[in-house]
Write a structure and sequence with these properties.
Blueprint (H helix, E strand, L loop, with lengths): L8 H10 L3 E10 L6 E4 L2 H12 L3 E6 L18 H18 E11 L1 H15 L4 E8 L15 E8 L13 H4 L13 E4 L2 E2 L10 E2 L5 E2 L6 E2 L3 H9 L3 E2 L9 E5 L10 E2 L1 H4 L2 H11 L12 H11 L5 E4 L6 H8 L3 E6 L3 H14 L17 E10 L13 H13 L16 E5 L2 E5 L15 E2 L1 H10 L6 E5 L1 E2 L3 H6 L2 E5 L8
Parallel strand pairs: 2-16, 2-17, 3-4, 3-15, 5-14, 15-16, 19-21, 20-22, 21-23
Antiparallel strand pairs: 1-17, 4-6, 5-6, 7-13, 8-11, 9-10, 12-13, 18-19
Amino acid sequence: MPTLDWLNKAQALKTAAQVPYRLLEPQSVHGDPAADNWLIQGDNLDALKALLPFFAGRVKCIYIDPPYNTRSAFEHYDDNLEHSQWLSMMVPRLELLRELLSEDGSIWVSIDDNEGHYLKVVMDEVFGRGNFISTLIWEKADSPRNSARQFSSDHDYLHVYSKQPEWVPKRLPRSEESDSIYSNPDNDERGPWLPGDPYANKPYSRGQYSITGPSGRTFSPPPGRFWRISQEKLRELDSDGRVWWGPTGEARPSIKRYLSEVSDLVRTIWKKDSVGSNRTSKNEMRALFPGEESFGTPKPERLLERVLNVATETGDIVLDSFLGSGTTAAVAHKMGRRWIGIEMGEQARTHCLPRMEKVLAGEQGGISESVNWKGGGGFRFATLGKPAFLSDGGIDPSIGFDTLAAWVWYQETRTPWEHKTAGARGGTPLLGVHDGTAYYLLYNGILGDRRPAGGNVLTGKVLQAINGVVPHAGPKVVFGESCRLSASRLGANDLRFRQIPYDIRAR
């Protein structure tokens, strides 16, 4: 497969692995404290790494609208990165996003012509060319730009990738306008229908025949055309009332297409009349923040509604690591999805936070009316704390059991830790069982004050306690400060010991 090369690419491919594991530090809770939605302020590279132990493989839909590198100035972003720097910025973030994406999930990236084609090749490399789904076109402009030197740009792109080539978008909900063309002139019990063309232009071996209608009139396909289905199939549909011969039975046969049996396919051109334009989104921002300068490139809520309609269901997790003005989080919340939004700049506090508070209060802009949004729910606002590991590889002594447990579980299994047996709930060092292997962490005296070192050392008594509280017949891996058991005893218990901090990867 062709790949793209640029200055410092080799270093960019190592960046994600070298990012330190930082802690998420909740700053405030808004609305329902039980809601598992997160607004995070901080560098999205650090934030994505911090999310891995808890959300790896769980995010159903990722939408990002990164800086376009257009050599133009925006108030809230530096959108003037040199080409190779832009690519080096994107690659490690895409790699971490891939780890967070579920096996049946999809990632959508908004971009324009300036970097769109390079981004396509990079995403082929990160996600696999076979997992490319499509490039969609969004009609963003309402009118031409008279200041354009060459062409007035009317559209942006959406690159869509998945983790599995079998990924299929959901059909779009039908609109009242689409449904209005269906009728039921013969009171068919199956409901409204639309007459379908019975002819095909391409040759069909069983599509040349004559058929007699209820009035006695005989019908044959026009010259150069063929019946779409065989004579046997047409008679079968006719006997089931699925063929329309006109109100008097003298018209050519039409095959009924029932409203109850159709849904809208997702097409690759998304018109502004359906999903909004740049003007739509700027008006939404002015309504939310009167008198303030609008973001340079906000996206309309209907555009994100379309993405989430075809990529998610209620309760799925949606992630946006370039949250900007907060549109993705607002739309996901109104549509009953769980969400994680990451924004580096101060607008995380000045725009995203107040916008989401307005959503909780039931604001009626954007898609609120169409989805019957009345308010409710909640989220947590968090920032990035210090790294969990010191520069020498040691563990920061202030790190709690659950934080270290989540990282250990992720590094061993590459799956998120869901607090199956958290230390705070029952005092057990068992993190869980993955592929038949049980993983344990001896840290912060999780077993109580069983000397030495408060139970952080694997001794005979600690092993007995482990086996007594949470017995496991298969292989076991125990992380602890040190081990005082012989190799033969470890072998007899099918146990491997790994020493803290040396056997915990700090990156």
